[in-house]
Design brief:
333 residues; four-stranded mixed beta sheet; 10 helices; 13 strands; 37% helix
Length: 333
């Protein structure tokens, strides 16, 4: 396997090429709300803390957060997904457009609410999360509309990412259509699977499961060692004839499986971990962007690993800038 990035100069050249890319993100989009406050007493009504709200913010979440990671870095991003015909859906679309993300693939479905996840924090600790969501069942008309959009959009992008949060958008029929269209257009296809919606991933360029997803797909109860993870990753690559499998292992870093080469292990690049939410979104965003420039897979994995190391050091679903990635790489070097 070719050597990964070895100098800041190589990273700078890679960043320049990445920022010229245009990437399409397909998946379950949602709105993330963060409510922050102070706790000074326990409620007299129940043994729970009373949170006095001091601030509230909203960010795009789910597959939309992958697009946000790309756009905040200066990479042109488009999103394709479904929201409800409600105020949360309109807010989500507004946030995406304000972030410079193409929303022409964002469709509405009046029969469901937009997925909203509200996290309540006190003293930088999450107190509770409240979810509004309803499973999506794609109608024939809605599936046809998605296919019509994707038939035009996929050839116009440099790479495609499928981000499956298991909320109902990604069916086998839709996946097969996306895989066939990306293959016809000659574009790389990266897939972030969901443990509750495992499909046949033949046709993907890279599959990016986490430990739980890889274990489930490989028919194992757990991956309790690097040796077990290595066996599972190799099994998935063989099962679907995948050129690449990128297995994320949290504090143990990542394992990259490439056809015809031994597994490549990159240990975690995180220095401080405040919040791992959204780190998987960052990994697939940056690995795909780097891969789309023609960078070697091991080098793309290192870029993705450093990017994840930056965002887990921030509170909430975070993104990063080229300067932050460069500084993180220089400190590690």
């Amino acid at each position: 396997m070719p050597a990964p990035l070895s100098s800041p100069r190589q990273l700078a050249a890679a960043i320049t090429r990445m920022r010229r890319c245009r990437i399409l993100v397909i998946g379950d989009v949602m709105l993330d709300r963060f409510v922050r406050g102070k706790v000074t007493r326990i409620s007299p009504e129940a043994p729970v803390p009373v949170v006095h709200v001091t601030g509230e913010t909203a960010h795009v979440g789910g597959a939309a957060n992958v697009a946000r990671n790309l756009a905040d870095f200066g990479i042109r991003a488009s999103v394709c997904g479904i929201t409800g015909a409600d105020s949360a859906g309109r807010e989500l679309a507004t946030l995406l457009r304000a972030g410079g993300i193409d929303t022409r693939g964002l469709l509405t479905e009046p029969s469901i609410p937009t997925i909203v996840k509200t996290r309540i924090f006190a003293r930088q600790q999450q107190v509770v999360r409240v979810d509004w969501e309803q499973p999506l069942a794609l109608s024939t008309n809605r599936l046809a509309a998605l296919k019509t959009h994707l038939r035009r959009a996929i050839p116009a992008h440099d790479a495609v990412i499928i981000e499956d949060y298991g909320k109902g958008l990604l069916t086998q029929e839709l996946y097969d259509f996306i895989a066939a269209t990306t293959a016809w257009a000659g574009k790389p296809l990266a897939v972030d699977p969901n443990v509750h919606n495992l499909l046949d991933y033949a046709g993907a360029t890279v599959l990016k499961p986490n430990r739980l997803e890889a274990a489930a797909a490989a028919g194992l109860s757990a991956l309790d060692s690097l040796a077990a993870a290595s066996a599972a990753g190799a099994s998935l690559a063989q099962r679907w004839s995948l050129p690449l499998v990128l297995l994320t292992l949290g504090e143990e870093g990542m394992l990259l499986f490439q056809e015809g080469a031994p597994p490549y292990h990159t240990p975690t690049r995180a220095r401080e971990v405040f919040d791992v939410s959204g780190a998987g979104d960052t990994v697939i965003a940056f690995f795909t962007a780097a891969l789309a420039t023609g960078l070697a897979p091991a080098a793309a994995a290192e870029i993705a690993n450093h990017a994840a190391g930056v965002v887990v050091g921030k509170l909430g679903t975070a993104t990063l800038t080229p300067d932050e990635l460069t500084a993180h790489f220089r400190r590690d070097a």
